[in-house]
Amino acid sequence: MTSNAKNLFAFLFLSFIYSALLAQTIAPRHLEKIAYDSNKKRLALFGGSEHADGKVTFPGNVQTWNGTTWTSINSDVPGNRVGHSWIYHEKEKVTYLISGISNANGERVVRDTWKWNGSVWSKAGSDVPMKTSDGAYDHFNNRLLILGDVYNKDSVWTGGRQEIELWEFKDSKWKQLSADGPQPSGPYEVAYNEQTRSLMVPTWENGKSVVWEWRDEKWNKISVDGEFPEARNRFALAYDNRTKSVYMFGGRSRNTPFFADFWKWNGIKWEKLETSNMPPARAGATMEAGFGGLILYGGVIQKGPCSEMWIWKKGKWEQVTQKH
User: Fold this and answer.
1) How far is Cα 181 from Cα 56, in angstroms, rounded to an integer?
2) Category of 23 on φ-ψ map: left (φ > 0), alpha (ψ -120 to 50) or beta
3) Residue 207: how many CA atoms within 13 Å on its side-chain side?
């Protein structure tokens, strides 16, 4: 075999391997949540509606990603959810599932708490004080901080009134922290900033960016000056300890169905980040720190729900799975 032929063979072989790895994917979901298990070094996905072969189902299994392959762990004990919190607890080495809306036998609120140790579910309580929520792990205080809707909490939200409160879940006990913080008008996201030891909640008032931070057991409301992301919901949000900053990607608004912009919050102001290889515009994606960077998973693009995975690392995006 000539040198040129060997080089061509090597190139084709590597291209095949790369394509095979990139094709490792699962069926797209909508309104799923992801959490990164820093002990097992893998991503865990739970909840949402699954879209495959023209059908919509509501699986209750957990999908895990170890950096190259997906594994389905079939255990339907808690049942499928949307609007749930799905948070990894570093000290306990378990992932918590908190409340949400079940689609089994019609939509209904399920106000319970479960722990998943990577293979087995165990129930951690009932009578959760909110129906839908988003939250984060506060490792300085070994607790979960949960921002949730407590209004008419046994009825499915169909738009309109919400009453958002902040609660702590620690040692299997719930404690109300505040009822006078941010009141988003629609879906919202939160992130825990380890640099400032605060829970960060992006909101907008009259089109202007307003960031709420729960720090030192009280709310701090920051009216942002300078450039900021346009008002939106269904954006992805996560904290990156390597840069000591919170990042936002995509989302939607009444006038823009899919944003493709990427922002960095340093605790004082927003900075728009632009690179040559950005993920396509999307809403409803989820983002978590893991695998040495930030993992952006899924979301709804122009063609519908997708299962793309991207990683933001060292100032650039890299796609690691294709959309289904």
Assistant:
1) 36
2) alpha
3) 2
pLDDT tens per residue, range 248-292: 999 999 999 999 999 999 999 999 999 889 999 999 999 999 999
pLDDT in tens, 150-185: 999 999 988 889 999 999 999 999 999 999 999 998
CB 283 within 8 A of CB 304: no
Distance set, CA 195 to CA 102, 218, 224, 298 (Å): 36, 17, 19, 27
Question: Token match 């509501």: residue?
Answer: 58
pTM summary value? 0.90
In a 13 Å sphere around the CA of 133, the CA atoms on its Cβ side amount to 31
Distance CA 189, CA 74 (A): 28
* Res. 23: pLDDT tops 50: no
- Paired strand residues for 262: 249, 273
Q: What is the dihedral of CA 254, 256, 259, 265, to 10 degrees?
A: -50
The tokens of 172 are what? 């299997």
Which residue type is seen at 19? S
Looking at this protein, which amino acid is placed at residue 238? A
**Whether 207 contacts 231, CB under 8 Å:** yes
Task: Specify the DSSP class assigned to residue 83.
Answer: S
β-partners of residue 249 are: 236, 262
Q: What are the backbone dihedrals phi and psi of residue 10, each rounded to the nearest 5 degrees, phi first?
A: -65, -40
For residue 192, the cross-strand partners are 199
For range 295-324, the mean pLDDT? 90
Go through the domains of the chain in sequence order and give each one's CATH number. 31-180 (2.120.10.80)
Type of residue at 52: A
67-97: burial string, b at 16+ Cβ within 10 Å, e else: eeebeeeeeeebbbbbbbbbbbbeeeebbbb
Report phi then psi at 215, rounded to 5.
Answer: -140, 135
Q: What angle do CA 59, 62, 67 make, to 5 degrees?
A: 130
Query: Rg of the chain over CA atoms, in angstroms?
Result: 20
What single DSSP character describes residue 171?
T
Going by DSSP bridges, is the β-strand pair 132-138/164-170 parallel, antiparallel, or unpaired?
A: unpaired
